[in-house]
């Protein structure tokens, strides 16, 4: 049984190989971690090696011994056994064997955990399933972390991050590309672990807005998970095809296209066949089900970089709690899931109708339905606002009132194919708030960057540096219409 769970000879050989050929530790330190070693003394030696790597000091017998003595964990007998072991050239096979046995030990520990939460703590089955799935995901993703990170570890990781950003050429885009140049400058993209809320009143185009981001990502070959609780997957695909081909959505819906448009559509279909887009349109999902589905999908498709939920208020709660408590649990669960999977999660949200009684109908944070917990948990909150929606609505109300009074009505509203729109950054945990101007193409349900970027941004900060921001967005050639 023990032979199936660890191999001390293999562990000694790996550590010995590192001491005699330290240059290979760069690769091994990425593949292996402390918990992959069974013997505690071997774990201590591996940690000492990591410390020396961070300090850029030699990884040899004397420096390792010095680190272990400092930590009061030096075992001379174990060190002699490692030095006596034969170094190996094919470390890959040994590492694979060590990782395999480590995985089995973690799975054995998980079975004990399942028994504890099921029998001893008598937790509800749904909660047990969530605990098990989370632990299993951590094990399969090799995501074993300590309770605390010490300062040397944090400073090392921070410097690596800064070097990575420098290697990008000081690009403003750090997170996932939003698909809009000026919004990228304001937000630096949607960051890993971010919970992003996109909120608007009905008919403002919040789904259309996020589909523009989705389309931009899948054309770059990025993976997207989309939970569509409001409309079937086929309708989402129709909108994406309209965005890509510039064929009006209504024409796509009824198949009213000329030969050139049919050709463009076939080209777009070929692109979408290879797209890494995964849509769940079940229509009703609670936070536990969503966690389970997204963990499984991310495990199967690591290329997924963002998850979208359309929309938050349709998600069902767990148990018989009050709705505001359910929404609080949902928003907190989404934020924790984003951090766990190290990817942004974008949730669409409805706004209260109370804002429509104001003269200035631009949304504020307090307009979000059940806003308390959502406002607290979100890293970024964006509002989609189109003034023409209200102008059209007011025109119809005037027309209705005139007809009721028997008066002749002359329309003054001119319907536009392209409308000015605003993306209002209501909250940004790590950046400025402000407004970004976009153009909404109604027939295509497509948002595009406004022609003039220089005058497009209003920000609450005066010293936001946008001049040095250079965002390289792929130039996608649209099929001819």
UniProtKB/TrEMBL annotation:
Annotated keywords: ATP-binding, DNA replication, DNA-binding, Helicase, Hydrolase, Isomerase, Nucleotide-binding, Primosome
MF terms in GO: 5'-3' DNA helicase activity; ATP binding; DNA binding; hydrolase activity
Catalytic activity: ATP + H2O = ADP + phosphate + H(+)
CDD domains from the UniProt entry: DnaB_C
Pfam families recorded: DnaB, DnaB_C
Gene Ontology terms: biological process: DNA replication, synthesis of primer
EC number from the UniProt entry: 5.6.2.3
Class of this enzyme: isomerase
InterPro entries in UniProt: DNA_heli_DnaB-like_N_sf, DNA_helicase_DnaB, DNA_helicase_DnaB-like_C, DNA_helicase_DnaB-like_N, DNA_helicase_N/primase_C, P-loop_NTPase
Domain SF4 helicase as annotated: residue spans: 169-454
Cellular component GO terms, alphabetical: cytosol; primosome complex
PANTHER family for this protein: REPLICATIVE DNA HELICASE (PTHR30153:SF2), REPLICATIVE DNA HELICASE DNAB (PTHR30153)
Functional summary from the UniProt entry: The main replicative DNA helicase, it participates in initiation and elongation during chromosome replication. Travels ahead of the DNA replisome, separating dsDNA into templates for DNA synthesis. A processive ATP-dependent 5'-3' DNA helicase it has DNA-dependent ATPase activity.
Family under the similarity heading: Belongs to the helicase family. DnaB subfamily.
Name of the protein: Replicative DNA helicase
